[in-house]
Amino acid sequence: MKKKKLAKLQQQFQPSFKSIQSNLFHKMQEKVTAKYGFKLKAFTQTDRPNVLIVRRLDLDEDARNKEINLSLDENFTNMVQRIQNGEKDLGELFSDNLAQEVASHWTSVNETITQNDSVVTENETETKDQMTLSAFEDEVASYTNFYVETTDDRYEVKEQTKTESRLLATISTQSENEYTIETALKRKYKLKLALIPIIEAFANTPIENR
C-alpha cells in the first residue's frame, strides 16, 4: 500500500480531539474517586470551550468550593494532540497528573515542599519507566524554547525567553531520585502536568541506565 494512502487511512481512523479530551476527563474523574474518595463531574461548555469546569458531586449545592474552573491553554491542546498522534502511554500519564492537580484544589496531596518552595519529594510508588539522557533531552526539547544543560553535578532544564535563560528544574547527575522543581515551572499550570512526570522518570532512572 502506498504511503500516502496508508497515512490517509490512519488519519481517518484517528480518534477525534474531542473524544480524546472527553476520555481524559472521564479517566481523571475515575482516578480522583479511586485515590481521593470523592466524586467529580468534569465538562466544558459550548460558550467557553477553553475552560474546564470541575464540580464536586458529593458536596452540598451551596458549598463555597463545590466548583472550580481551570483554563485549557495551548499546552493542554498540545498534550491532547500528542495523544491523538499515538504517543505511547501519554494518555495515562497525563490523566494521572490531571487527577492530582484537580484533587489538590480540595485536599492536600502526598507532597512535601521545603521552606524555599523548591525541593519536592512525593510519596508515590516509584515509576518503573526508565529514561536515557538522550530521550530526556528530546522530551524536553519538544516544548518550545525548552532545553537541557549538563554541568558537573546536575542536569538543568531551562527555558530560553526573550530576555534570559530561565531555570525550571535540576536533576542530580550523581544520585537517583534527587531533583528540584523551581517555582518558575510550578507556575506553568498545564505544562507542569506534562513536564514534571518526565523529570521524575529521568530522576528515578538508575545513573548507569541514563
General description of the model:
This protein has 210 residues and is of the alpha+beta class. It is 40% helix and 23% strand. It has 7 helices and 9 strands. A hairpin with a 2-residue loop joins strand 1 and strand 2. Helix 2 crosses helix 4 and helix 5 runs antiparallel to helix 7. It is globular and about 55 Å long.
**End-to-end Cα distance:** 39 Å
Order of the strands making up the biggest sheet: 6-7-8-9
Largest sheet: 4 strands, antiparallel
Count of β-strands: 9
The value of Rg in angstroms is 19 Å
Oligomer: single chain
Helix content: 40-55%
Mean pLDDT across every amino acid position: 82
Structural class based on helices, strands and sheet pairing: alpha+beta
**Total separate domains:** 2
C-alpha geometry: globular
Strand content: 15-25%
Tell me the series of helices and strands, N- to C-terminal.
Answer: HHEEEHHEEHEEEEHH
Weakly predicted, low-confidence segments = 108-128
Number of helices: 7
Quick overview:
This protein is an alpha+beta fold and 210 residues long.
Topology:
Layout: H1 3-12, H2 17-36, E1 40-45, E2 48-56, E3 67-71, H3 74-84, H4 90-103, E4 111-113, E5 120-122, H5 133-141, E6 146-150, E7 154-160, E8 165-172, E9 179-181, H6 183-186, H7 189-204
Antiparallel strand pairs: 1-2, 2-3, 4-5, 6-7, 7-8, 8-9
